Amino acid sequence: MAERRRRGPARSGDKPVTRALDRGLRILEVLADEPGLPLADIASETDLSPATALRLLDTLRAREFVAHNGADGTYRIGLKAFEVGSRFLAHTRLQETCRPLLQRLAEDTGQTVSLAILEQAEAVYVDSSESNRSIRTTTRVGTRAPAHASASGKVLLAWLWEARVEEIVGTGPYRPLTPNTITDRGVLVEELGDVRQNGIAFDREEFDLGISCLAAPVRDRSGDVVAAISLSSLSSQLAGREAAFASALQQAASDASLRLGWRAPAGGSAHADASLPLVD
Q1: How many CB atoms lie within 10 A of CB 47?
Q2: Domain co-membership, 23 together with 95
């Protein structure tokens, strides 16, 4: 067995972290280093009593972060921990892949360009590159926007089955953020069809008055839409330039998709695709 380092309580500055959470994370750290450990070893390595360790293991098992082998009584890291780690790696790769494209598009257009993923019923912006204009829009990393009221959100919904879209955003009426926000389910479904057909989504002052946005899909190796690249602008700066911005945005999203391993079918493109997934 490899030499192991005993995990004691973690501290944040001079203030102890939440005890139960800290103990559970210590167990995961121990199991991450071993193919399987019995309860006694886990308790010893984490400085916990067997009763406390068992209680925490039961909770982690219920959430599938830990798996139990009934044949030999050992515990090992669970599938859910792998899934969480995989998502972190995927998001990290996504940001690293897209960042230079965001920066270049922001420089070329003089507008703010962002990268968003879907989380529940919101588009979450995980990276952003601002223009150097003195008067410009700003999108902070971590900002959330309702999917029904944002260009990025519409892109992230557009290639989902209609039943899945309904699960995520509901049947409406949707909350209006401005007089331009789509509140009717039928109107939203129709617009998502347009997004699939044209490979571009628009937010014409639907989230913020005076600000308009465009977004295009980023696909992974399997062809799934995993993110959206958006361009936001003061509506006054977008007038007369929308088509040019849309073309540049779609090219950036296509380049990002290619870098993530996506390959267009014959005669296809990364952005325009009216079809839905083959499986729900």
Answers
A1: 14
A2: no
| 234 CB-contact burial (10 Å; exposed 0-12 / middle 13-18 / buried 19+) | middle
Distances in Å between the alpha carbon of 270 and those of 99, 121, 241, 246, 263? Answer: 18, 24, 22, 14, 8
Same domain, 47 and 137: no
pLDDT tens digits, one per residue of 64-93? 999 999 999 999 999 888 777 766 656 678
- Nearest 5 degrees, angle CA 101-CA 104-CA 110? 130
User: 64 and 93 share a domain?
Assistant: no
Is residue 261's pLDDT more than 60? yes
Last residue of a domain, one of 30, 55, 77: 77
* Residue 265: inside a domain: no
Domains contained in the chain, number: 2
Give the CB-side neighbour count of residue 106, counting CA atoms within 13 A.
24
pLDDT-based confidence at residue 270 (cuts at 50, 70, 90): low
Residue 112: pLDDT above 50?
yes
State the Cα–Cα distance between residues 171 and 214, nearest whole angstrom: 24
Q: Which of 77, 102, 126 is the last residue of a domain?
A: 77
Which segments of the chain are extended strands (E)? 11-12, 15-16, 66-68, 75-77, 112-119, 122-129, 144-146, 201-204, 211-219, 225-234
Look at residue 86 in the predicted model and tell me its pLDDT: 64
Rounded to an integer, the average pLDDT of 129-150 is 81
Q: Which DSSP string do the residues of 10-48 spell out, in sequence order?
A: -EETTEEPPHHHHHHHHHHHHHHTSS-B-HHHHHHHHT-
CATH label of the domain that carries residue 166: 3.30.450.40
30 and 134 together in one domain: no
**Domain assignment of residue 172, given as a range:** 89-259
pTM: predicted TM-score of the whole model, two decimal places: 0.67
CA separation for the pair 255, 237 (Å, rounded):
25
